[in-house]
């Protein structure tokens, strides 16, 4: 039974222990919990938030509603890591508890200032008539996990936008701090607003302008805009909801797109010479991707492997949503590459074994495959004895890759199609595929193209079946080590 609005916005303290116990017990019954991805044991995870580096540790928060698979009163849950692969929840949960965020601490970003981590987030507020106001607010977190909200709002809703104004991303560029915020303007078009911190003061922001990135202005809202720099080139990652499919023929309910530009003109709020629009991920779900430039300059990203307004098979177990692996962005020959950080290989249990058909795995592994040129390769993951599974087709003669999940596990979101594909230069291909019980992340040519998504396999679906084509490679069992589920 979907939760009512009243249940979704019920104060956290009004949920009884009995109710919470039931939710936890139900979630524990799911066969699909991931092993090495960030996922809540119960409740709903959506956007990655506050991805940053603070006091010697990587910080990665996520949007969270604890009481079932629903978008309700949102908090931030903190996780920390020393290698960007193993993340541990700290128990710190930032909750909506002020008049500036009474109906949810929505998405945002973080950056260290002095000995505190400054968190910039959207306060979602509804009045008695359920009219929304949004505020861009701050929280300061110290290294002991104590947090204090900045008492005043830092950026109020401007007059030329609707109540859809959210997801501040703070970043540093050539000696100054900036923030971009996603918005819907009063003509109901998705735009991105740019602000600059006065004298590097995170409490004092001035509006610079609406970001000019040759926005096609066909979306009705831009969520989660992020600007990162890869070898000095700005890359804008954003989610233009409702974007016209003649601009780009995406399949998912909402797209996560990007543009690469030559430079960032801070005075005129413009990306100079922005590229055409590209799909960040060709799979079934990667959304609200958050990026930041690490202190060492690397551009790191992480995505929500889930989408708004979609029901998932895990909903009946009172949980939903998972984060992707952390990826590093690079640009080669003008093309954006996304690939998990180097430490991901630490999950490999051993040197691996040559790829062969397998009737059964634990659905926790990595495959590194070489697909020859001029071949029509076809193989199945999550395969069963009936020849069903997640079908991957790589036509290296014509340069076409297709992922078909129509025969893999419980079906959902079928109105958005059960296959995804992309084109690529004809010729030999390398695939690195990470499988984690109900997650797949497929990186082609070390991240030139990426397909991410969920599969909720039937109990019998855990094999690997090579159907045709010239494929060779290595199978690595993966082990996260510390996590027991
Ligand atoms: C994107 C989003 C954000 C918002 C958050 C609320 O998935 O809608 O725009 O801040 O989720 O949870």
Automatic annotation (TrEMBL):
Record Pfam families: Glyco_hydro_32C (PF08244), Glyco_hydro_32N (PF00251)
GO molecular function per UniProt: beta-fructofuranosidase activity
Keyword check for Hydrolase: yes
UniProt keyword annotations, A-Z: Carbohydrate metabolism, Cytoplasm, Glycosidase, Hydrolase
Subcellular location: Cytoplasm
Primary enzyme class: hydrolase
Phosphoprotein found in the keyword field: no
GO CC annotation, single: cytoplasm
The protein's name in its UniProt record: Sucrose-6-phosphate hydrolase
Lineage of producing organism: Bacteria, Bacillati, Bacillota, Bacilli, Lactobacillales
